[in-house]
Design a protein that fits this description.
The chain is an alpha/beta fold. It is built from eleven helices and ten strands.
């Protein structure tokens, strides 16, 4: 695991901090980041005393989503978004995961965070499912997890428009999880983690497995549907132009 961009630390008894800190790439889902996250969750799954995970970014970034190279590779038919999947990592983690999304969460980075068991947003940060800005339909399980976690109306608006939303605006729209000042996101997440850590691990594992059953059972079908939609939308010449233009190079 690249210890420079993903770090694991035991904060307190039973509480593990997973921090993404790729300052060069603003926590984009590069191959290094993807591998490091997969390795981190593999390690967490083998920690017998872990009862809660706080997953966060650095400064003003949680995760900036896919890279230009990654999107162009999918456009060219050389890859699909499931080749290096990270969106389901917190879902598969045996213990509760708290996504302390103190910074911006963009595209796949937002989807990834929403699969956590608990979510804390920052009023100042930007949250966007910007797939349609590039002209292709969403992947990373976004078409399922966003309506599931945010509600149909708000999720449909976010997915179809691709517009950015400040956490403060999402708070006013009634998102069903805490939205705080950026400086308070970690403290809120730590309070949740402490609550989880006070419970027996086996009970947490059994109940999480039960509560996530619907998501785990429906997700494979949704992912296949998203791949089919990609086949119809992401290979358009206009998509390549948009990717190149929006990334600026």
């Amino acid at each position: 695991m690249n210890a420079m961009i993903v770090q694991l630390k035991e904060l307190e008894d039973g509480i593990i901090l997973l921090q993404m800190e790729d300052r060069v790439n603003k926590n984009m889902l590069t191959p290094d980041m993807t591998y490091a996250l997969q390795e981190a969750f593999r390690r967490i799954a083998k920690m017998p005393n872990c009862r809660a995970v706080i997953w966060t970014g650095y400064d003003t970034y949680f995760s900036s989503g896919g890279t230009k190279e990654g999107l162009l590779s999918i456009h060219a038919g050389q890859a699909v978004f499931t080749d290096a999947s990270v969106f389901q990592l917190s879902l598969e983690c045996p213990v509760p995961v708290i996504a302390a999304m103190q910074g911006h969460a963009i595209g796949g980075g937002l989807s990834m965070g929403l699969f956590a068991d608990f979510i804390v947003l920052s009023r100042e940060s930007i949250y966007t499912a910007n797939y349609m800005k590039y002209g292709f339909t969403p992947g990373m399980g976004a078409t399922f997890i966003m309506p599931y976690k945010l509600g149909y109306s708000l999720a449909t608006e976010m997915l179809l428009s691709g517009n950015p939303y400040r956490g403060g605006e999402l708070e006013k729209r009634g998102v069903p999880f805490p939205v705080t000042a950026r400086a308070d996101v970690f403290g809120e997440a730590l309070n949740i983690a402490r609550n989880m850590a006070s419970k027996p691990r086996e009970s947490l594992v059994v109940l999480k497995h039960h509560l996530t059953r619907t998501i785990r059972e429906r997700l494979p079908e949704i992912i296949q549907q998203e791949i089919v939609m990609h086949e119809r939308t992401i290979h358009q010449p206009e998509v390549k132009e948009r990717i190149t233009q929006l990334f600026g190079h």
